[in-house]
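Reviewers of the previous submission asked for a worked example of the structure-prediction workflow described in the proposal, so we include one complete record here. The input consisted solely of the amino acid sequence. No template or homolog information was supplied to the procedure at any stage.
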Amino acid sequence: MSNPLLQAHELPPFSSIKPEHVVAAISELVEQNLQTVEQLAEQNSTRASWQSLCAPLEELNDCLERAWSPVSHLNAVVQTDELRASYEQCLPLLSRYSTELGQNQTLFAAYQALRDSAEFANLNAAQQQAINNNLRDFRLAGVNLEGDKKARYAEIKERLSELSNRFSNNVLDATHGWHIHELNDSRLAGLPKSALDAARSTAESKSLDGYVLTLDAPSYIAVMTYADDRELRRAMYEAYTTRASDQGPQAGQFDNSGLMVEITQLRHELAELLGFANYAEYSLATKMAETPAQVTDFLQQLATRSRALAERELSELTDYARKEHGASELQAWDLAYYSEKLRKHLYDIDQEALRPYFPVPTVLAGLFDVASKLFDVDISACDDMETWHPDVQTFQISRGDNVIARFYLDLYAREHKRGGAWMADCRVRRRREHDLLQLPVAFLTCNFMAPGNYQPAQLTFNEVTTLFHEFGHGLHHMLTQVETAEVSGINGVAWDAVELPSQFLENWCWQAPVLKEMSGHVDTGEALPDAMLNKLLDAKNFQAGMQMLRQVEFALFDFRLHQLSGAESSNHIQRILNQVRDQVAVVTPPESNRFQHSFSHIFAGGYAAGYYSYKWAEVLSADAFSVFEEQGLFDQTTSQRFLHEILERGGSADAMLLFKNFMGREPSVDALLRQSGIAA
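From that input alone, the workflow returned the following structure tokens.
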């Protein structure tokens, strides 16, 4: 039987992909590619051209990516023990492949020959950028290392790949390894009907009576925000904030303590091998920010500007909880609960009362309408795309009569699915052999509460903004006009600029005309009433100072951790986090809190020494949106300039240059502070 991962499908044949196909396909592709790379490197070592060197290499890498992308995605959204095992067997193969390419001195010489040749000046901007990026990445991959150091680099990369995957699996297993089972709803007072329905459905899926509360985000957030039973909130908080650690109800069972220590030590060793003082410095080699001091100064500035407001917000919350509810001392598991009550008290707005106004079909129609008005595209359902689960929806993006991209939308939380929300490449836009254009295809994944009781799923407003955020990433990937894979879409974009389109699109969630358009009560179809809409907008910056400091805390912890020469122990990591909290936080969590043990962004994702990127890019997005505030939400001149200078260009030019092309100047923090209500 032929292996579906080795066939040139336009889109992945998900039903045909089995765990037993994975290792065989990836092994074969890696070996074939390495042999062909050697031949290409030799043939081009002294005289190279784009067509003789870069085009065939791009084809090889894309062939491997088209096989691996659906496997990696399935492992994240419908993981089984067999698929996990196959996935893990491939990680060292892919790590070796990446390292061997990056350390191939003959291939490096071929790229340098092309860079130095007369042909380079005749290449387009994307091709030139790809070549320059490759030369940089060869150096960052240790192409100039000798002997033992080169071998050690390869060992470190392979080990880090394994450790990051184990970290992620521990978080997943810990999240799904604990729940609370209640036979009746007496302990669940305060929970909205949507949360109770979901808890009942979860119990049924486990063949249990009553209700099951889990650590998946929709269930956890509902309990922390609405459950009147303080002990229930505490139990959920302790289980959630001690996941994959040495504390809490699963203490030691999926413990990431040792993994964090080894990951930070290996990252530091890798950075030193390449001549950097620490991993933070190494990380900035591919980012907009130029020095560690620039990053820490930026974060300190945000903390300083936000602190007074955050202290007032906490004092207001504490006073309110004491006077109105007799809560003498607020604990970590009380904050969300009383914050929601205070929000309702101040603004007469109930987050859960908003949910029926945001059924998924209506929100999607509104989202697609925003994209259509801004960027002149049509988005429609597409029924010829095979999926991995009945809940997954499929769409295509068209301009005129031409389909320009497709995407999969997987919105709902379920067992064996990684938590969080993300966009990932399925196919990248590129010009293939015989002048064929490969269209971009995206995976868009969220973890919202699934529909029930024959009604469509309904979103909280936070979930609406999450959906807009991920779709912004998707537009960056799918609206690119670049035809060189390495800088097409989000590829090659500086990591601290990659959040610009996603955070930029969130701004439209907060505009009254858009809110009217994308809301419609699940029973009546009535748009969000003006009174509720105005209250929602009035509450936009509720506790903005506390939220800002929370993100600064995460970012500073990440960056300072990676300025060390590796952590000595998990206690050392805790001390670094405690020091950051002492400096910037207004809320100190209990000693048992082990947030870092499930901080997958930095230990299992791409944000190591880069979590600051969220705030860095938020400055860019707020600044960019300020032009729309001045010119009009759907001003065509402005939106087309954003399309052409940011979305279509991908990573084909320096991120700061593209931003300045759009804005006419360098970014300023003022718009973010104003929009967040902090500037005043």
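Residues 178-241 form one domain. We consider this example representative of the routine output the project will generate in years two and three.
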